[in-house]
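Retro notes - structure team

What went well: the batch runner handled both jobs without manual restarts.
What didn't: labels got mixed up in the shared folder, which is why I'm recording both outputs here explicitly, each with its sequence directly above its tokens.

Job 1
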Amino acid sequence: MSKSERKYIIGLVAITLIAITIRLLRPAPIDWSEGYSASEKKPFGGYILFNELPTLFPDDAINTNLNPVFELIMDTTRANYIFVNQSLMFDEFEAQILLDKVNAGSNVFMATWNFQGALADSLNIAFMNGFPGINPSINSLDSLTQRRVDFSNPNINNPLGWNFPAGLIETYISKFDTSQTVVLGDVGAKRVNFIKYNLGEGAFYIHSNPFLFTNYFLRDENRFDYSFKALSYLPEQPTVWDEYYKIGRQQFNSPMAYFASQPTLRIAWFVTLFGLIIYLIFGSKRKQRIIPQINPVKNSSIEFAATIANLYLNNGTHAELLAKKLLFFKEYLRTNIGVTTDFEQSDAEQVAHRSGLAPSEIQTLFSMIRSTQTNTEISTEQLKQVTDQIDWFYKHSQR
């Protein structure tokens, strides 16, 4: 390497180190993106609210839910379920589970500015969305135009109301069933933002402004009590904080995704990568590459088929092979579709709904399985028919 080339490389290294130093010393910009998760400490995260729940419910257990709603189907305990997120859209199966739980005495509190899907349709509720947003370069929300928010209950309302940025509370509840609904709050001009929907022994509490429950306003001594008073409508019983239906919950599904999300780790990664490149530049020499040993490709599919054939010839019958096949199929339905079944016709519609297939096709499949399960001897043709139908399900199921 010549002296001139060495000078260019040294200069490049110096410029890179200076840029990294400036980046480390520069104040980090405020992240105004929505998060709502219990681990999020940014302005629109849910860290403070989650950690204050033991204060709001001192005599009740506080649990965190990390699973979809249908995982709670077997839980018969009455509880308060708190959902705070940018958007909440439940499918028909999830909506029915929530309706059943509320009807049995549980209470569901939902704060979101985008409420759609089967549950919204079942409750006959619609939102007028305002698509909230702020300038990401600002350092404070206090200079923005404010609008009054208050409760309808005279025991907890504020004579002066609570003032929040108008751009964050544009969304309001434009449609609801007045026969089952109690208005709990508004954002002025008869724009309802908080309602209670009575159902059976429980109720749905629906709020259209989730920003009011985030860190930025909970650390404000003049506005923190608004969210606490809204949650005070929930009765004293075990409380479940949702972490599954959160924006960006799959953000850190790999170590590299977590590295990229943390500024200091991201910089360390680039410094290490840059150092590796410099090492390769300075340390590289003309060397004979190692000649790799190329092994012949193994036909593993043939070996697998041979193994299965030997097991069948030595030990198996058609009925035993079918029993194994059905055992694996039942486990697939349980883990991927979320349905535990012995192939009864009553389960066919639920499997069809969650797999995206026609109910008649699932009913035909279940009928064929039940007819073969009762036989102690099964022909090759029957085994092939059932196997082909199950393989067809695996190929066309949407889960």
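Job 2
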Amino acid sequence: MITWHDFLAQQERYKDLLYETENHRLVRQMLTGRERRERFYCRTLAWLGRHLSAWGRDLQERYDVGMASTALSAANRVR
């Protein structure tokens, strides 16, 4: 026979399960949104990194030659 105490314990257990289920749903919802946002940021940062590297190489190629010849001519003047 089920007593009043057993009934109250079952109700409490049911409330706990509902609470856990709702928390789990909210966590999944938050993580899903975060993954989408992080994927966007990762793609954007990867694109930016590639372009910064390319721009840096271009600048080094353009200005290192000029700087090397300037440094050589300055060194020749000192002698």
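One thing worth noting from job 2: The CA atoms of residues 12 and 45 lie 49 Å apart.
We'll revisit the folder naming next retro.
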